[in-house]
Write a structure and sequence with these properties.
Blueprint lengths: L2 E5 L2 E2 L5 E5 L2 E6 L6 E9 L3 E11 L25 H20 L7 E3 L10 E6 L5 E4 L6 E3 L8 H16 L14 E8 L5 E7 L6 H10 L4 E6 L11 E6 L3 E5 L2 E5 L9 H18 L3 E5 L5 H5 L6 E6 L2 H13 L5 E5 L2 H4 L10 E5 L8 H8 L5 E6 L2 H12 L3 E9 L9 E8 L1
Parallel strand pairs: 4-6, 7-22, 12-13, 17-18, 17-20, 18-19, 20-21
Antiparallel strand pairs: 1-5, 2-3, 3-4, 5-6, 8-9, 8-11, 9-10, 11-12, 13-14, 15-16, 21-23, 22-23
Helix pairs in contact: 1-9, 2-3
Length: 437
């Protein structure tokens, strides 16, 4: 295979650089946005080729030296080596290009809320434990565990807890998990921390075993407010199963504005608290302009959005598939003296068949997973009397696809705002406002 010289003009969702040579598109591993490089071709396909970077010929004008010491081996943050202005422009372009290409819009620019913190913003991390007992991130490119001592996008409390756990694992000689051999004890550790300084840890084990010496040592150090153990015996599976609280509080407390939220081990809560709150305030502003009598909040999690918006409608219907999340939502509503939320504990695509969609002056609010909206939801909303939609999205391509579908029911895209929820990564959040003609 030959080598080619390429100018990297874009980055794919998988983190590969994009360059063109003689009308053929190349996807290049380890490329930096904006650089000129030499790449070795790995494979030619009909319409593209894959390659790996051999060397940089001309450094990217957007390059900056990474602050993270693991930037070259951990692929969790694709943009550690790109200046922030270029990150913002990339994310704006990503939203604009997807919506224009897929939804047939003609956006030239969009509003964009830049992050208030580039580092130490994440309130949750998940770490593997390698065979040597090291806390590690899993590399999607190499399928290897990358041992780390700190994560500079995780908040300070999480990093303190990481150090504490790592010290005790090594001191007590615990082994990690080898996915290839399905051997070893400690599989996974989830750490959460709130703006109130509270922390929660879940340790996932590969089998039932007494680790009380480890948990007692962690309790003694006093950094963890809530610790759970979960056992998952399935090979190469790290998910939380049944939980056993070892010590501390059942839940930890987060505060957004004047609202309080109790977070349990399985709760979905946005990983960037301050930027998530900006999203809710943006939604709140648009809702206040519309003044709906009913808000239908699909994919509501622990009803964070519903509770924050509870003063802006007479009635809120909150839909969430997980029973535990609905239980948490009810508790959080009670904690905030919110009494106007009605819950549906079922998949959104089934709940939409049961919800009254033709009540006067209703608004639909979506915050779906990356796969976007189920077709049944779009069809039912399209056939209803609902004229206003707020769509919160973590995936510009599925947002664009759903906007295109909704336009078939005479909805217009009124406004799109990008939000930099996931700084130093390729991911971006957005809020779209749609109104029926």
């Amino acid at each position: 295979m030959k080598n080619v010289k390429l100018h990297i003009t874009d980055i794919t969702n998988e983190g590969n650089g994009v360059g063109k040579h003689e009308q053929l598109t190349y996807f290049v591993e380890n490329a930096i946005l904006g650089e000129m490089l030499e790449a070795k071709v790995i494979e030619y396909k009909k319409n593209f080729a894959t390659a790996i970077k051999v060397e940089t010929i001309e450094e990217s004008p957007f390059y900056e030296k990474p602050k993270c010491i693991y930037a070259n081996i951990c692929d969790g943050c694709d943009f550690q080596n790109i200046n922030y202005e270029a990150q913002v422009q990339y994310k704006k372009n990503k939203i604009i290009n997807n919506i224009n290409r897929i939804a047939y819009e003609s956006l030239e620019d969009i509003n964009f809320l830049e992050a208030d913190q580039r580092y130490h913003y994440r309130n949750k991390v998940e770490l593997k434990i390698d065979v040597y007992g090291n806390l590690s991130y899993f590399s999607r490119k190499t399928n290897d565990n990358i041992a780390i001592k700190e994560c500079i996008i995780a908040n300070e409390k999480i990093n303190q807890v990481m150090v504490s756990i790592q010290e005790q694992i090594h001191l007590l000689n615990y082994s990690g998990y080898d996915a290839r051999k399905n051997s070893g004890l400690l599989k996974n550790i989830i750490i959460r921390s709130t703006t109130q300084g509270q922390s929660m840890v879940v340790i996932v084990l590969s089998k039932e075993e007494d680790i009380s010496d480890l948990t007692k040592a962690l309790e003694t150090q006093g950094l963890i407010d809530s610790l759970y153990i979960s056992v998952n015996t399935k090979k190469n599976n790290y998910k939380i199963q049944q939980l056993n609280k070892v010590f501390g509080q059942d839940k930890i407390l987060e505060i957004m504005g004047d609202k309080k939220f109790l977070i349990s081990p399985k709760s979905f809560f946005q990983v960037n608290t301050s930027m998530a709150y900006q999203i809710y305030l943006l939604a709140k502003k648009h809702i206040q302009d519309i003044n709906p009598s009913t808000i239908i909040d699909l994919y509501s999690g622990i009803s964070t959005t519903s509770i924050i918006l509870s003063e802006d409608a007479n009635h809120i219907i909150s839909v969430e598939i997980l029973d535990q999340a609905v239980q948490d939502a009810r508790e959080n509503a009670s904690l905030n003296a919110v009494k106007n939320i009605e819950w549906y504990a079922m998949p959104a695509e089934k709940a939409i068949d049961k919800i009254e969609l033709n009540a006067k002056n209703s608004l639909a609010l979506f915050d779906p997973p990356r796969k976007g909206l189920d077709e049944n939801i779009i069809n039912k909303i399209g056939a209803s009397n609902i004229n206003d939609i707020i769509y919160i999205s973590c995936n510009p391509s599925t947002l664009a696809r759903d906007v295109k579908r909704l336009k078939e029911y005479d909805f217009e895209l009124i406004e799109v705002t990008g939000i930099d929820m996931f700084v130093n990564t390729l991911h971006v959040e957005s809020v779209a406002i749609l109104k029926r003609k």
